[in-house]
Design brief:
CATH superfamily of chain A: Winged helix-like DNA-binding domain superfamily/Winged helix DNA-binding domain
Oligomer: homodimer
CATH topology of chain A: Arc Repressor Mutant, subunit A
Strand content of chain A: 5-15%
Shape of chain A: elongated
Number of helices of chain A: 6
CATH architecture of chain A: Orthogonal Bundle
Structural class of chain A: mainly alpha
Distance between the termini of chain A: 46 Å
DNA sequence: TAAACATATGAACAATCATTCATACAATAA
DNA sequence: TTATTGTATGAATGATTGTTCATATGTTTA
């Protein structure tokens, strides 16, 4: 294997074994792709509008227009965010005549949000 | 109370009771401040560098320089992100001579990340 | 068919963010 | 004290993001 480029300049005078440390960390560190997907997922939860949409859909499935009314936002803004939520597989939709009905698409959503609530409540 | 401004233009012809819907949604919707804090928390998880730092600290407490070496990033970049993690109360630190030792500051971290992993694994 | 309705989407803009660079601060060693 | 080491931080920059506006797509009604 080739030498890795060291972005950090040096390191503190090591009483501990750096090689062992780096090895054991990279053992348990997930693949880069998993880390990326994980961050992308949490990014989706990192916006109040999307959190509100999820809370709204906890109540019941709903068409885009209803969500917009409930949250007092434009149809366009909601539609854009629903697309993000759908790409993250957090919501799904179905057509009912002219309307598109959105609903939650994952059982973990409530758990993830609950965990977050528990943390901020200390 | 004054009239609420309607950002959405109108709404789909309502077979269902909008007032009831809006009422029951706003019943279960958390306070704006909670929603904001919640989104801020998930935002912190929404970056691969910070996720990597958390995974690193799962292994053991560590000084800034070690984290930088393990992740092959500059001390400055790590330090900036540790500040974000600390503000979110996800890590804490203590001084040991010249070094600042960082460690995890919350029991929910592993659970939140695990939930995320479970979702992306479908 | 044309008109109305519900939703989706591309472009534009302002706001936010992660990293880099330079430098400041704090503790120890000489 | 001065030099060195470990960390923090402000400014600058390029990249990303949420909303708005205008418009396109798809469905139903007249």
């Amino acid at each position: 294997m080739a030498e890795k480029d060291n972005k950090h300049e040096h390191c503190c005078l090591e009483q501990h074994n750096h090689k062992e440390l780096i090895e054991s960390v990279s053992m348990d560190m997930p693949e880069e792709e998993v880390l990326y997907d994980l961050a992308e997922l949490f990014k989706v939860f990192g916006d109040t509008t999307r959190i509100k949409i999820l809370y709204t859909l906890f109540e019941s499935e709903m068409c885009v227009c209803d969500i917009a009314e409930v949250l007092n936002m434009t149809q366009s803004a909601i539609s854009h965010q629903l697309k993000v939520l759908k790409q993250a597989k957090l919501v799904k939709n179905r057509r009912d005549g002219k309307q598109i009905i959105y609903s939650l698409d994952d059982g973990h959503i409530a758990n993830i949000i609950t965990m977050g609530i528990e943390h901020i409540m200390e």
